[in-house]
Design goal:
The structure holds two protein chains of two kinds. By secondary structure, chain A is α+β, with helices and mostly antiparallel strands. Chain A is 35% helix and 16% strand. Chain A contains six helices and five strands, in the order E-E-H-E-E-E-H-H-H-H-H. In chain A, strands 2-1-5-3-4 form a five-stranded mixed sheet, sandwiched between helices. Chain A is globular, with a radius of gyration of 15 Å. Chain A starts with a strand and ends with a helix. Chain B folds into three domains: 196 residues, Aldehyde Oxidoreductase, domain 4; 163 residues, Aldehyde oxidase/xanthine dehydrogenase, molybdopterin binding domain (Aldehyde Oxidoreductase, domain 4); 216 residues, Aldehyde oxidase/xanthine dehydrogenase, molybdopterin binding domain (Aldehyde Oxidoreductase, domain 4, 2-Layer Sandwich). Chain B has 20 helices and 27 strands. In chain B, helix 3 runs parallel beside helix 4 and helix 14 runs parallel beside helix 19. Chain B is globular. Chain B has a seven-stranded mixed sheet, with helices on both faces. A six-stranded mixed sheet of chain B has the order 13-21-20-19-14-27, with helices on both faces. The chains are: A alpha+beta, B alpha/beta. At the A-B interface, helix 1, helix 2, helix 3, helix 4 and helix 5 of A face helix 6, helix 7 and helix 17 of B.
Chain lengths: 155, 758
């Protein structure tokens, strides 16, 4: 039976109609709401490319059932900032040219933004630790760490 | 005829669609037919010798580049745009790129082999130079000034032609806007003097990055067309298994299920929603035959050695290596092997297909849409002209991964349901079914005379053969469905860099081309060049150690290539290389310049060096790796890489550095961690837990020195600096702990075993 589930996404109340309340949040964001930030990578919470914030905490939307979201506020990469009004982490990633294909970068930025919200001046080791479970295949690690470092000066 | 008006309405119309799509704010600068344009008999020329195949200038002076080479996440779109903007003297921001659309872009060959700038860029530069020359000629007519007195001025808006002495001027838009050039590429068209460059050679920021950082970029995985359904494939339980039966009732409860599609051993599901398709694929009960055609993994190298050799490729033959080896005062031999690797794209392959009025349009991230068009047309037994394959940038692929296969899957499902279908592979499809970098086995032998000179080198490499005349890896869907497909193996040009850059008097290098290999092979970043360089450059280090020579000085003894010599000397300075005789524990009494330090307790540090001239014909790279080896745990930490590279002219230095950093980091991952695992039936490393890759705490630091030679040809950078990584690490480990690692990946277990057996 189709069920309407209310969600709070990027500052707005919305609802999605789904057949399965246990559908992962990722598909609601991408397919029902047309967002591109969170991306499917592994479906089992191993790579981080689907990361979104739930009440400010980074979670893997590919293993978060819709039914578990409740009233938590969801922020995606689009909600973090736009090209006209960049979040400091996004700005730093652009300045450092911290991407190759960029498919994983959603997770890197969301994870880094959450880190900087709780630790304004992380060390390199703390940045690397925070990103341990975010995988990048192009090998953009150096630039990503530099970008987070740069953002930490501006957050 | 110069500046002919387009004589076909539909070309204008087609262009119009694209221009409309440019103006949508959410679109990237890389344009593609977002609107879901169906396949049409397009009349825009895509001929490689036509300027119009590559370039168009509209009435506002905006330039469109049609590139057959596509941006796989390497920044090529930006670099090619720089080339066009520079050669035409127009602002970078006024050039847009359309990539890899069989209806619009010339067939410049697959985006592979580090050739996009070197070959593709050269063609594009020539097209731009021809166009510029023609524009100047036309301006001369209109302004009544001799062409040689004209200059092109770059305003903020467009290229503007005027006389050197000032006076009247005319813009490109006024000269050509909306019309075609109707010119052949002119090899004699004057190229700009690199000394005058303002855009090429600059670290121009990539145009795609802002939208990738904000979720506004449309990846293939984000691409949609109206009325689109979602498909998923259900692959055989064993690679060669036959589908005996399936139970449609097992998925009847899945909401929105449209169809279970079976054709031979091809099985897939189509649903209204993506989640519906995923659930149906998970729930569908299918009964497959047993198949155990894979070798035992623990006996992989015995299997490779026992595989039938179909032919030998002798890649170099100098003097008479085998007798010289027999007469040498001292002989060394070693066997190297390199595991099977997967591409490991973070985003699984994805494609959308639509068949309308007997014509197929397929959107995918294929690195060769012109080739894919032929494969899809062959699969469906339809004319090439009825197929349009359009590139949409996706997750990075690093070679021929699953993109083309996902395209074929989407085509078969779209045909079955007569609606557009999007297929995205699941993680296990990508890890399990992308074509693999084949296992590579190398036997190396060398002879030394009494004075420690190398007198003979003989290498034998065991790699799968390559089907003659084909550049395409067979499509999984076509094979499973029993539809027309390629039958031979196409592993890429994996015998490159079996020959060596050193001037030994007797050299023989042979590739034994095997009749089969366990998995469908394809190319992964620096295919063959990486494996062969691993063996060659590690063995060079063995020879240097055998004669107590410094590895860098030892290489210089046998190099007569001035650019190579300069590169190694600059590497010595850049990496602060101190002469060392890496004798490891083998000769603890040797008086040497070793600077290797015992860091603390179980951890030893070492440095290793490697050199390559890519394919013995282009980009030079030298690298020094610094490693820490824990003797007890066997764990290797690659702390640092120093890389010096000479790729001739540099188009975008930051883009080049991004590639070098990526090559080093990705290859450290491959060398330390990666190996496809399998049982007798199938791949068993189906996710990131069973096929781990490098994580942030394990990443090396990388320092890079680029040797820019603006007056030389630009050579490829996407692969060469990957090829130096395995041997640099192996040599550094020897320097640290005195054992040779001759088998990639260098797992802790292998390191412990090597230390124990030393």
């Amino acid at each position: 039976m189709p069920t309407a589930i209310p969600l709070h996404v990027n500052g707005q109340a919305t609802r999605v109609t789904v057949d399965d309340p246990d559908m992962p949040l990722l598909y609601a964001l991408r397919d029902s709401l047309g967002l591109h930030g969170p991306r499917f990578g592994c479906g089992v919470g191993q790579c981080g490319s689907c990361t979104v914030h739930l009440d400010g905490r980074p979670v893997r939307s590919c293993v978060t059932p819709l039914s578990a979201v409740g009233k938590k506020k969801i922020v995606t990469l689009e909600g973090l900032g736009t090209t006209d009004k960049l979040h400091p982490v996004q700005k730093a990633f652009i300045e450092e040219q911290a991407a190759q294909c960029g498919y994983c970068i959603n997770g890197m930025i969301m994870e880094a933004a959450a880190l900087l919200a709780s630790n304004k001046k992380p060390s390199d080791a703390q940045i690397k630790q925070a990103l341990t479970h975010n995988l990048c295949r192009c090998g953009t690690h150096l630039r990503i760490v530099r970008a987070v470092k740069r953002a930490s000066a501006g957050v | 005829m110069l500046f002919a008006k387009p004589n076909r309405r539909d070309f204008l119309k087609g262009t119009g669609i694209l221009i409309v799509s440019f103006s949508l704010p959410a679109l990237t600068k890389t344009a593609f037919a977002q609107s879901g344009t169906p396949a049409t008999t397009n009349t825009k020329t895509v001929a490689l010798d036509d300027v119009d195949a590559f370039l168009a200038i509209d009435p506002t002076g905006s330039v469109t580049l049609y590139s057959g080479k596509v941006d796989l996440g390497t920044g090529i779109g930006t670099a090619l745009t720089q080339i066009v903007a520079e050669e035409l003297d127009v602002p970078f921001a006024r050039v847009r790129v359309i990539e890899g659309d069989t209806a619009l872009t010339p067939a410049q060959g697959k985006t592979w082999g580090s050739l996009s700038i070197q070959n593709g860029g050269a063609q594009i530069r020539q097209a731009a130079a021809t166009a510029r020359h023609a524009l100047l000629q036309e301006a001369a007519k209109q302004l009544g000034v001799p062409a040689e007195d004209l200059i092109v001025e770059q305003t903020t808006e467009e290229g503007t032609v005027r006389s050197r002495s000032g006076g009247k001027q005319v813009t490109y838009g006024e000269l050509i806007g909306g019309k075609t050039f109707s010119l052949k590429l002119d090899k004699r068209a004057p190229l700009k003097d690199p000394a005058t460059y303002k855009i090429v050679g600059q670290p121009v920021p990539r145009f795609d990055i802002p939208e990738k950082m904000t979720g506004q970029f449309t990846y293939m995985q984000d691409f949609k067309v109206p009325g689109m359904l979602h498909g998923r494939v259900v692959r055989p339980a064993a690679i060669g298994a036959t589908l005996l039966s399936f139970d449609e009732s097992s998925v009847k409860d899945v909401p929105g299920l449209v169809k279970v599609v079976r054709q031979g051993n091809f099985l897939g599901v189509v649903a209204e929603s993506e989640w519906g398709a995923i659930r149906a694929a998970q729930k569908l009960k299918a009964n497959w035959s047993n198949w155990e055609g894979l070798p035992e993994q623990s006996k992989l190298w015995e299997h490779v050695r026992a595989t039938k050799v179909n032919k030998d490729d002798v890649t170099s033959n100098v003097g008479n290596a085998e007798p010289a080896l027999g007469q040498a005062a001292k002989r060394l031999s070693a066997t190297y092997d390199f595991a099977i690797h997967t591409h490991g794209s973070i985003g699984p392959s994805c494609a959308v297909a639509e068949i309308k009025d007997g014509k197929l349009t397929c959107w995918s991230s294929s690195q060769g849409t012109h080739d894919l068009r032929q494969q899809l047309a062959a699969m469906l037994s339809m004319p090439d002209a009825d197929v349009r394959a359009i590139y949409v940038e996706g997750s990075g692929c690093y070679g021929r991964n699953g993109h083309e296969d996902a395209a074929a899957d989407a085509v078969l499902l779209a045909r079955a349901v007569e609606r557009p279908v999007r297929v995205q592979w699941m993680r296990e499809d990508e890890h399990g079914w992308d074509p693999k970098g084949p296992p590579t086995l190398m036997d190396l032998q060398a002879g030394l005379d009494a004075n420690g000179n190398v007198v003979a080198w003989y290498s034998q490499v065991y790699v799968p053969e390559s089907a003659t005349g084909s550049v395409n890896v067979k499509l999984v869907a076509a094979e499973l469905a029993g539809l027309p497909h390629e039958t031979g193996m196409v592993p890429g040009n994996i015998i490159q860099n079996t020959a060596i850059p050193y001037t030994f008097p007797n050299v023989r290098t042979v590739a034994h081309r095997l009749a089969e290999t366990p998995f469908r092979p394809s190319w992964i970043r620096a295919p063959g060049r990486m494996q062969n360089t691993f063996g060659n450059e590690s063995f060079m280090d063995e020879l240097a150690a055998a004669v107590g020579a410094d590895p860098l000085e030892f290489r210089l003894r046998y190099l007569n290539d001035p650019r190579g010599v300069e590169l190694l000397k600059r590497l010595a300075s850049f990496a602060q290389w101190q002469g060392r005789s890496s004798s490891g524990r083998a000769s603890p009494d040797r008086t040497s310049l070793r600077t290797t330090k015992q860091k603390s307790g179980d951890v030893a540090t070492g440095r290793g060096l490697t050199y390559i001239k890519y394919e013995l014909a282009r980009t030079y790279v030298g690298a020094v790796a610094d490693v820490e080896v824990n003797r007890k745990s066997g764990e290797i930490r690659v702390k640092h890489f120093a890389v010096v590279q000479d790729c001739g002219q540099i188009i975008n230095p930051d883009g080049v550095k991004n590639q070098v950093e990526g090559n080093v980091t990705q290859t450290v991952s491959r060398v330390l961690k990666e190996e496809v695992t399998f049982d007798r039936s199938r791949v068993t490393s189906l996710n990131w837990a069973s096929y781990p890759i490098l994580t942030f705490p394990e990443m090396p630091d990388v320092d890079i020195e680029l040797i820019d030679r603006p007056a030389e040809k630009p050579w490829g950078v996407g692969e060469p600096s990957a090829a130096v990584v395995p041997s640099a690490i192996s040599n550094a480990v020897f320097d640290a702990v005195g054992v040779r690692l001759r088998s990639v990946p260098f797992t802790p277990a292998k390191v412990r075993a090597a230390i124990q057996n030393a």
